[in-house]
């Protein structure tokens, strides 16, 4: 009798707790003043995105400035004209960059975001600085390997950190914004590099050496800023107060039930690596980075073949506009695959026009479409994979696999876009289109499987997806 009475007394309390839990899962923001939510998210945006974008821009500059240094005297001084020395020095960077992505994200959870980012940035800054003092081709290759080692843990950490702060359908705009910051900052790279070459002869160093020395020092300084200002994970960051922290974690918990980090183990890593969707996302990211690397490396000879020595600023502008537009509409509609497929088709049309038309203006329009189609796929695929995984451990490993495959895209682009095929690069164009068709196929398969699983959940035929109650895949 007393047990029955005790049970009835506790029942109202239990019902209230269940009701509060349901309300939080349905509308987490409803428990907070909308102005407070908006102000906090804006503060997080300003703390995360500018410095992350700047660091990523520096990473892109430091990994690709070899071409500028080559024309500034490095080829003669280090005898890179012998055999395939320059190609090997360019490509050797991608080997550690690809292999160390997963270990990098494992280290991220152990070290914490700020310390991990600082080690990465200062480490590759030191490698960059060292390249300014090498006296032979072998030493240059060693520095390029070290550059790949330290950059390997950087980009996946960046993406992982950003995705832990926002709900699933707020992610792509943020990824696009930090990507756009990197594009704008990186656009000044050739101008700055040229200015550095004017220091040729100062203190006995050639112009190419000054490129590496100055950029290395700048990178190391940014590494110190990363320690001072970069954001950690929501549960440990100091720049938010406890009320703001609770709001962020409540929103994440309601959205995908992984506000509390789980322990990363060898068994979990192996399970994610055996998941075909992990590699599906990775192959799609490779397909997305491939045209970006190809155009980035070979746009100059293509433009010169048309009689243009400029107009890259126009292409950069469309890259920025397209990236943000597709990010905005993807978050707005809460759909990823259809908009990624749309960009793939735009890219394919652009490649065909560039490769097979004769009028220079038409070929330039083809490049315009390639840039418009390829640009937004990088943040788009990253958001797509982040939206369709739960738990910190799976997010860390899947993100690492995805970005590692982007390194394969870089190797692929530099291999199939051959100097002997200038100025139309037909084999490279077909290889790039093959990547786009592969991505379209994977998007179709993923959409079919995800939609079927969502329907089974709604019909009550499965208890949960991704071992997470209430979770549904983003199509």
TrEMBL record:
List the Gene Ontology MF annotations in alphabetical order. Answer: transmembrane transporter activity
Ranges in a coiled coil: none
Q: What is its main location?
A: membrane
- Gene Ontology CC annotations of this record: membrane
Q: How does it sit in the membrane?
A: Multi-pass membrane protein
Domain of life, source organism:
Eukaryota
Q: Where in the cell is it found?
A: Membrane
The record's listing under InterPro entries reads:
MFS (IPR011701), MFS_dom (IPR020846), MFS_trans_sf (IPR036259)
Keyword annotations for this protein, in alphabetical order, are: Membrane, Transmembrane, Transmembrane helix, Transport
Annotated membrane-spanning segments are: 48-66, 86-108, 115-139, 145-163, 175-196, 208-230, 277-304, 310-329, 341-359, 365-384, 396-417, 429-450
Q: Where is the Major facilitator superfamily (MFS) profile domain?
A: 51-455
Q: What is this protein called?
A: High-affinity nicotinic acid transporter
- Please give the organism: Coprinopsis marcescibilis (Agaric fungus)
């Amino acid at each position: 009798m007393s047990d029955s009475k005790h049970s009835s007394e506790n029942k109202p309390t239990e019902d209230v707790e269940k009701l509060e839990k349901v309300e939080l899962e349905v509308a987490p923001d409803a428990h907070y003043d909308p102005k407070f939510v908006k102000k906090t998210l804006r503060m997080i945006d300003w703390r995360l995105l500018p410095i992350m974008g700047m660091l990523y821009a520096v990473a892109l500059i430091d990994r690709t400035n070899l071409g500028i240094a080559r024309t500034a005297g490095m080829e003669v001084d280090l005898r890179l004209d012998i055999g395939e020395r320059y190609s090997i020095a360019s490509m050797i960077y991608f080997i550690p960059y690809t292999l160390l992505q997963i270990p990098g994200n494992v280290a991220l959870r152990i070290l914490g975001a700020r310390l991990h980012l600082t080690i990465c940035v200062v480490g590759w800054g030191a490698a960059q600085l060292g390249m300014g003092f090498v006296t032979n081709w072998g030493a240059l290759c060693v520095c390029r390997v070290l550059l790949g080692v330290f950059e390997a843990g950087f980009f996946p950490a960046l993406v992982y950190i950003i995705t832990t702060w926002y709900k699933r359908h707020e992610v792509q705009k943020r990824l696009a914004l930090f990507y756009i910051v990197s594009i704008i900052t990186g656009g000044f790279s050739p101008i700055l590099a040229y200015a550095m070459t004017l220091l040729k002869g100062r203190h006995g160093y050639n112009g190419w050496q000054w490129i590496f020395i100055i950029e290395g020092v700048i990178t190391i300084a940014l590494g110190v800023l990363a320690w001072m200002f970069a954001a950690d994970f929501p549960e440990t960051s100091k720049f938010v107060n406890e009320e703001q922290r609770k709001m962020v974690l409540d929103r994440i918990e309601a959205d995908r039930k992984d506000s509390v980090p789980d322990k990363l183990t060898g068994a979990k890593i192996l399970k994610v690596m055996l998941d075909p969707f992990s590699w599906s996302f990775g192959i799609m990211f490779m397909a997305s980075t491939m045209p970006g690397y190809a155009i980035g490396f070979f746009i100059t000879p293509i433009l010169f073949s048309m009689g243009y020595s400029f107009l890259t600023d126009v292409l950069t502008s469309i890259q920025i506009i397209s990236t943000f537009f597709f990010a905005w509409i993807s978050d707005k509609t809460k759909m990823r695959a259809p908009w990624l497929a749309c960009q793939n088709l735009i890219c394919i049309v652009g490649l065909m026009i560039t490769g097979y038309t004769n009028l220079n203006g038409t070929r330039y329009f083809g490049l315009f479409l390639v840039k418009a189609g390829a640009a937004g796929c990088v943040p788009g695929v990253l958001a797509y994979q982040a939206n369709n995984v739960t738990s910190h451990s799976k997010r860390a490993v899947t993100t690492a696999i995805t970005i590692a495959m982007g390194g394969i895209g870089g190797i692929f682009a530099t291999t199939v876009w051959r100097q002997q095929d200038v100025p139309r690069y037909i084999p490279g164009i077909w290889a790039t289109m093959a990547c786009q068709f592969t991505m379209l196929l994977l998007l179709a398969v993923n959409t079919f499987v995800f939609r079927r699983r969502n329907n089974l959940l709604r019909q009550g035929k499965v208890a949960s997806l991704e071992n997470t109650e209430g979770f549904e895949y983003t199509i």
